[in-house]
Amino acid sequence: xxxxxxxxxxxxxxxxxxxxxxxxxxxxxxxxxxxxxxxxxxxxxxxxxxxxxxxxxxxxxxxxxxxxxxxxxxxxxxxxxxxxxxxxxxxxxxxxxxxxxxxxxxxxxxxxxxxxxxxxxxxxxxxxxxxxxxxxxxxxxxxxxxxxxxxxxxxxxxxxxxxxxxxxxxxxxxxxxxxxxxxxxxxxxxxxxxxxxxxxxxxxxxxxxxxxxxxxxxxxxxxxxxxxxxxxxxxxxxxxxxxxxxxxxxxxxxxxxxxxxxx
Length: 263
Ligand code: 5RP
Description:
263 residues; alpha/beta; TIM Barrel
């Protein structure tokens, strides 16, 4: 890896712990005004001190985030679909690398839809994004999006993650599954886990804990943070698992402690 690529990777995966806490707020690119993100800037501002990086679209970045922030940006560069379509896989690259550089992105990210009607175009687009990344020293985070029909088992997710790695992605984001550690062994790049839809806080801590214990480099969590009763307390508790090896019990105690101080 060249210096620029290494430097940007070190902004995402913290050298001190070798782990990464990423905050995902890119949902609007196909879901529109997602619950909790109606006023994206207001929701995200108090969370920035606690996340290692922020994953979002260029529109949200330009309109809603203070340009004085030091939080590294993971810029979504794919889109072209909406929740109103049955087939979500029809995505293309929607941001040029020049604009990603103009926005000082520390990494770019895009979805691949393995096994879906548009898998070919999304994987070829990943290859194009990797070529951009190699040219300018910008890491590419591939997201293994699951079509509505896809099972989220180890076999499928390993296939999708391995294809992302073989296509040249520098990191991959996927879902936690049973036998997750087997997936990690088969994927020669750092793996981060998506939070998925909102679940009770304890379950979100368990998801984080198991992901890290079984080899994930971190979590890239959205709804389970910004839809929590207290997103600021939630992100600190998730962070404590990722970077301080807190148990689920300790994270839950921290969450309730922070919650009671807030109220
Ligand atoms: C969608 C994404 C989202 O960033 C991700 O799924 C959001 O995180 P969460 O599932 O935790 O709300 O990549 O393809």
